[in-house]
């Protein structure tokens, strides 16, 4: 992004009504316009319970994570969402890794495949269901956090949430406490979303990581958004052998598969790390 584009972005986030470049077409919608509109629509749906403040902060890559983490701490933030862009630059990856390491709250890394460019509120969109969300649940704290957010999503009747739990074919649970936490969270999700009738639960048994990859590949065009945890038990047979092919360590094994160029899908991806 050059200086003029940066100033234009700053103007949109700060003022939302003025543009630095008069030559820009007034009918052209930029990604910043879409984000700002989405947040303001979200605020309006909150009916006075939500307040949105949009602004831009410019910082060098070396200290960018400090700005993010400091604001998260000062504002007592529950979730920070970071956009993920495929790039050869190691600087951007370093920023994400530092935020993952130092943030005082949960982190969501969002990879957008463009389906959310429609910033209209969900209730204005055609069809009984506007967004199909899939939660890939392998187990662990990050997956449970992702499940909590999906449960909140399911409160909106325009969103249909499907939870796909991937379990080892042969029982190999080493941590019974974690297993119990997983089961409690899944049961809570199923009970709390039952009344909305816009959720589903599926279990898939796999023998090894290759089987998990096949399950994921078969889901490509069925959903609009994948919600997955970042960290998992490294010893689970569900993910065996998959880490060797990972390209982006900061996304975790499942997240890396879902954002891969080889993964044929229209769905955007949100990778969650619990604080």
Brief digest:
By secondary structure, this protein is an alpha/beta fold.
Descriptors for this entry?
single chain; 275 residues; alpha/beta; seven-stranded mixed β-sheet; 8 helices; 7 strands; 17% strand; globular
Describe the protein's architecture and organization.
By secondary structure, this protein is of the alpha/beta class. It is 37% helix and 17% strand. It has helices at 3-14, 31-45, 61-74, 90-102, 141-153, 176-193, 209-217, 252-259; strands spanning 79-83, 106-111, 131-137, 159-168, 199-206, 225-229, 268-273. It has a seven-stranded mixed beta sheet, sandwiched between helices. Helix 3 (61-74) packs parallel to helix 4 (90-102) and helix 5 (141-153) packs parallel to helix 6 (176-193).
- The shape is globular
Rg calculated over all Cα atoms: 20 Å
**Fraction of helical residues:** 25-40%
Structural class: alpha/beta
User: Terminal Cα separation, in Å?
Assistant: 32 Å
* H-E order: HHHEHEEHEHEHEHE
> What fraction of residues sit in β-strands?
15-25%
Strand order, main sheet: write it out. Answer: 1-2-7-6-3-4-5
- Uncertain stretches of 5 or more adjacent residues: 1-25
- Please report the number of helical segments: 8
- Please tally the β strands and state the result: 7
Assembly state of the chains shown: single chain
User: Major β-sheet, in short?
Assistant: 7 strands, mixed
Mean pLDDT rating: 83
